[in-house]
Prior knowledge:
This protein is an alpha/beta fold. The protein is 37% helix and 14% strand. The chain is built from 15 helices and 15 strands. The chain has a 7-stranded mixed sheet, sandwiched between helices. A 4-stranded antiparallel sheet has the order 11-12-15-14, with helices on one face. A two-stranded parallel ribbon has the order 1-13. The radius of gyration is 23 Å and the shape is globular.
Amino acid sequence: MTHTTAATTARDATEGAASGRREGFPRRDRRDQGGLPDPLAHGPRGKPLVYLDSGATSQKPRVVLDAERDFYEHHNAAVHRGAHQLAEEATDAYETARERIGAFIGAPAREIVFTRNGTDAINLVAYALSNAAAPGALDGVDPALAERLRIGPGDEVCVTAMEHHANLVPWQEFCRRTGATLRWIDVDESGELDLASAPITEATKLVAFTHVSNVLGTLVDVAAIVEQARAVGALTVLDACQSVPHLPVDVATLGVDFLAFTGHKVLGPSGIGVLWGRYDLLEALPPYVTGGSMIELVRIDSSTYAAPPQRFEAGVPMTAQAVGLGVACEYLSAIGMERVAAHDRDLVAHTLDRLAERPWVRVLGPTDPDRRVGAVSFVVDGVHPHDVGQILDDSGVAVRTGHHCAWPLHRALRVPASTRVSFSVYTTREEIDAFVEALDRVPAIFGVG
């Protein structure tokens, strides 16, 4: 059996991808491939597309598309089930993907749990911890560890004011279910967390926070928060959806207890996410979803459950998507995440420099490019971001407008919404210049500046 590999293709594309050229990404031009549209070659109203919305979802390299297609064409079967050869091939492809993804973030395969997306991964932790409070749920677990996992009245959960709703609403609901109290770390006017006044106390049982703000691009001081959390014995949950696509991420170095990210932002398919967790914690937690595949022994009146990660993967899994994500991680590894980070830093700095030349633009968050990753959000005072977005779209520039699933952060910054440009390995300086040129239409149209 052979698996589609990104290594050779990624090596060929390394120079282009890290400099913003798009080798390795589909170029399905209408003229030469039967009218199939290429989102990076053909934008709205027949104009070339400048795609600056990778923070919402990334475009996919050809090797990722080929890997999914190869699985369906040659190895498609239900994994961990049939005894026939095709099922064995499917299972091998699925578990090989788990190994690749684990290696990408410095984790053993047994600590990688596949989920639907990053939101699902965070909810898995929140609901599994909710279930830990049920009678008998932690029988056989070391008493000291069981005490850490039981969260209820009198305990506190700490989040931050810059969280995506996916790492806020699950903890609001968790506190409602368990009786714990929600606290939060405020954000200052510069777009940084106010860690000096973080409400992490002896009552804190869990701290959930983002690695990189999806709005501001702020790079959070993970080590400082982990140090405060460890001092009181609190669990830590890191939302890495906006960092894994842009930075070298190593779970051992970060020191957190759980980490979540999503495939579609890291050049991979939609419908696949990843939860990493320390194995002793995964092994102690009760399941989030029950059914087939996650069981050890089933009787009519009771069941026992498989060891992690299978315990948290009920039902037939998203195998083709896992294979595609494994290849996406291999593709980025072949480029080199240090080079990806340097490319991103250059794009951020160039964007900040160009926007600083326009006094009618107000950038939100840190102005130091070394404090930002992957995105720049801004406002044009007197013009709604949706109007800014329409002007840009009319020029073939795709950006995100609104509150970006971060309402509390926008309220803290005293703006109703913002316009965000966000980048990936295929983004170029020339595209930033095209965006700024299109943005220059806004003052004339709306009479500002």
